[in-house]
Amino acid sequence: MAATLACSASALIVSTAPGTSAATAAPSKCSSASTGRTEQQTNNYVSNYVAGLRQKGRPQDQIDSDLAQNLCLVRIDNGGATTSVVASSAGSAVTVTPPRIYWDNQAARYYAISGWKLSNAIKNDMPATGLNVTKNIGGHDGFATSFNASLLLTGYALTYYGDPPFASSANVANASAANSYGAGYSFQDKGRNVYDMAGTGDNFRTNVRSGQEVISFKKSGTCKSVYGFASYGHTWSSTAVNGVGVGPYSISFQWSTTSNKWTAASQPGGTATVC
Question: Distance between CA atoms of 168 and 118, rounded to whole angstroms?
Fold first, then answer.
C-alpha cells in the first residue's frame, strides 16, 4: 500500500552560482569537500560533517556559516519555510526540515540538505522489553527528498545518528530510490530503555534520533527555479517500509501492512535559481 505526499571576515571570491548574487560567494580560503574524493565519498563526507555540527547543537545559521567557511558550500536558496507539516498520526513525533540548497563554486556542484529530528514520542512504539535491551521498532523506516524540477543528480547520501549508547552516526549504504527528481532511503530504527541516573524519567534511546540526506547535482544549462520537500515514514509492530518512491515533487512509501505507521512531510524549502 502506498501513501503519496506532494506538497567572514575572509576575502570573498566573486564567482558564484549562475543566477545568484556576489553576496553568496564563498571565502577564498575554503577547501571544497570534493577535493580528493569521489562523488559518493563527497556526499558521505558532507552528510557526516553536518551530522557532527548538529550533534553539537549548532543552530542553522552557524551550520550555514561553517559550511561556507570550511567546505565552500554557500547557501543560495531564499530561506523558505522551516516548520514541519505533520501528516497522518505522527503528532509531534518528528520535525522534518526541507532541503536547503548550497553551491560549491570550486567543484561546480549544487547540494541540497534536508533532515529530521524525532521526539521521545516514538518510545510508545517500542516492544515490551527490560532495561538495556536493544530492540527493532517495527520494520524499516524511510526518508526521502523530492524536487519540483528534473535535475542532473551526481550523488546522494543519508546519515542518521542516535542517543548514547548507540553509535554516534551511520551511513546507509544504498538508496532505495533515486532519479532526476530526488532520492529516498530505508533503514532500521532501534530503541533501548536505559536506567536514568539523573532521575529525569527520560530513559528512552534510539539510534535514529536525527539525520539528514545530502543530494548533489550539477548545472544543466537551462536555468530553473528549484525547491523541494522531504518526508519521513515511521513504522512499528509488524509493519515495515518495503519501498520508497520519488517523483516530480512527490514521495511515496510502500508499507507491509495498512496499520502501525505514519508519515510526516516538511514544508516546501526555499527556492534557488539553478542553471
Answer: 15
